[in-house]
Design goal:
The chain has an 8-stranded mixed β-sheet. The protein has a 3-stranded antiparallel β-sheet with strand order 12-11-15. A two-stranded antiparallel ribbon has the order 1-7. It folds into 2 domains: about 250 residues, no CATH class; about 60 residues, no CATH class. The protein is about 25% helix and about 20% strand. By secondary structure, it is α+β, with helices and mostly antiparallel strands. The chain binds zinc ion (2 copies). The site of one zinc ion has 6 residues, from strand 9.
């Protein structure tokens, strides 16, 4: 369902109303595609068999009618541009170049091959919601850009979605690394440091209060009251399931983490679980359906490699701060360190294989810049 934008949907009620409309055997899982289609179409046996014969892929090309077709590669594509197109996308060596829909369908097919353990089966009847998240709102992008697309179950808790959302700001390593850029590998990341966050859906703030997190929505609620915008409810996301929500399809809601990193969140559709065609493994949800990579910042020196460092107070930089890649930072801001006599004595084969020790050529500051 992708209804009117202003229509508030009580998801529990939505599920109950749909259950009343469907056949009893709808939630019986049928892995046989033909049987599943047959059940969905609800046609007499004879009509279905006729239809099945008419749709036989062997009739796709009359000249090929005698040939057994087991895969897309078997089709003769001389005059069939659509087959050529399919062949092309199915056989691309780099999976990343395949259209998103094909990648998702292939993954879904693989997931559906797995036989769920009893406790890992979706407790049908249930619903599946499509949820879209934007890139951070306060980023340099002027236009709104989408980042991730998830499928969540009605039975999923809101915190399960939060745990699957990725944002490049979560991966920023905390600290100033000019003395030893290599130490960035062992430095804590932002998400290790700030674990709190909230969803803002229909005037309610759902806080992540696991791990002794703070209620970071408190300041928003106070601000709302002071500015007479309204009184917002507050709940915990680890105790709220999606099925408990009232939502509007296509309406912009909010996900906030790291204190002030804001992402728009939109529900794009809601439907009943179809046990024969949807992934039936409960543990796989929320499923990441699509991920759009944001715009990358290239190194301001070589303009070839992605920037990894933010450099401040550098006497060589035209702009302050400057974004540099690893190679340009080391080549322009560091000198080979002279080894002391003691260090020379300790040199062994293993150390010789390691990179040379570097020291700062002058005073500046360096911070990590994450782009995932
Ligand atoms: Zn973010
Ligand atoms: Zn560079």
């Amino acid at each position: 369902m992708s209804g009117e934008e202003d229509e508030l949907i009580n998801l529990k009620q939505f599920l109950e109303e749909r259950i009343a409309l469907i056949r009893e055997d709808y939630f019986v899982r049928n892995k046989n595609v033909h049987e599943s289609i047959k059940a969905d179409l609800d046609l007499p046996e004879e009509t279905f068999n006729k239809l099945q014969n008419m749709c036989n892929p062997k009739l796709f090309n009359p000249e090929e009618s005698q040939r057994e077709i087991s895969s897309i590669e078997d089709f003769d594509s001389e005059n069939l541009s659509f087959v050529e197109y399919l062949k092309n996308i199915y056989t691309r060596p780099n999976k990343r170049n395949q259209p998103v829909e094909i990648r998702f369908l292939k993954n879904l097919a693989k997931l559906n091959e797995l036989e769920p353990e009893n406790e890992d089966q979706i407790q049908a009847p249930d619903i599946i919601l499509s949820v879209q998240l934007s890139q951070p709102l306060n980023s340099k992008l002027r236009k709104l850009a989408w980042s991730e697309d998830f499928l969540v179950l009605g039975q999923n808790y809101l915190c399960e979605l939060k745990d699957k959302i990725t944002c490049h700001r979560d991966e920023i390593r905390i600290g100033e690394f000019s003395e030893d850029p290599e130490s960035v590998k062992s430095a804590p990341s932002m998400k290790d440091f700030i674990k709190s966050g909230y969803f803002f859906i229909e005037n309610c703030l759902y806080n992540d209060m696991r791990n002794e997190n703070n209620d970071i929505s408190e300041v928003v609620r106070k601000w709302g009251e002071e500015k007479k915008i309204g009184t917002f409810e507050s709940k915990t996301m680890e105790n709220t399931k999606f099925i408990d929500l009232n939502i509007k399809i296509g309406f912009p809601y909010l996900y906030t983490h790291l204190g002030n990193c804001e992402h728009l969140l939109i529900f794009t559709s809601v439907k009943l679980v179809n046990p024969s065609s949807d992934c039936y493994l409960k543990s796989k949800y929320p499923i990441l359906k699509d991920k759009t990579r944001g715009r990358f910042t290239f190194c301001w020196c070589c303009n070839k490699i992605y920037a990894k460092w933010i450099v401040c107070n550098s006497k060589y930089a035209v702009d302050d701060p400057t974004f540099l890649c690893e190679r340009c930072l080391k080549n322009t801001h560091y000198l080979l360190a002279e080894k002391t006599d003691e260090e020379n004595m300790e040199v062994n084969e293993e150390q010789e294989e390691n990179e040379e020790k570097l020291k700062k050529a002058f005073d500046f500051k360096v911070y990590h810049y994450s782009q995932i």
